[in-house]
Design goal:
Blueprint lengths: L2 E10 L2 E5 L7 E4 L2 H21 L21 E9 L14 H14 L3 H19 L1
Antiparallel strand pairs: 1-2, 1-4, 2-3
Helix pairs in contact: 1-3
């Protein structure tokens, strides 16, 4: 069942930033408020997937109106952002070109993903883009 996490959209020097009070370190941004809100979903899902992959606890979302306002944050909006909890993992066997696999492993290592986490996030992003284009 999907969860909806509160996100704060704030004015930034060159657009808008997004942060999730329940998930320290989970941030996103966009050139417009709408871009920032749309990008927040991808950031949230990646954060939750990575936490689950590493065995880190995933806190439940707070109520949107229970989050106190911070005096040093120039809030533009508060939104609820959807995330799907990690499901049961299923092992699959795939074939990739050797150079693509090596590049993927280097990228995953630099960004903190595992190969599986990176592939899952790439597929989610592609499906999100395709839905938005439709």
């Amino acid at each position: 069942m999907a969860r909806y996490y509160p996100a704060i959209i704030e004015r930034a020097a060159d657009g808008y930033g997004v942060f999730f009070p329940d998930l320290p370190g989970c941030t996103s941004a966009g050139a417009t408020v709408q871009d920032a809100a749309e990008n927040a979903e991808e950031a949230l899902q990646a954060h939750i997937d990575l936490a689950a992959e590493h065995g880190d606890p995933i806190p439940p979302p707070s109520a949107l109106d229970a989050i106190p306002r911070e005096s040093d944050v120039i809030e533009v909006a508060r939104v609820l952002v959807r995330a799907d909890p990690p499901g049961r993992s299923v092992r699959v066997n795939i074939t990739l070109q050797e150079d693509l696999l090596a590049a993927m492993e280097r990228y995953a290592s630099r960004t903190g993903y595992s190969r599986c986490g990176l592939l899952a996030q790439a597929v989610r992003e592609r499906m999100r883009r395709d839905r938005a284009a439709a």
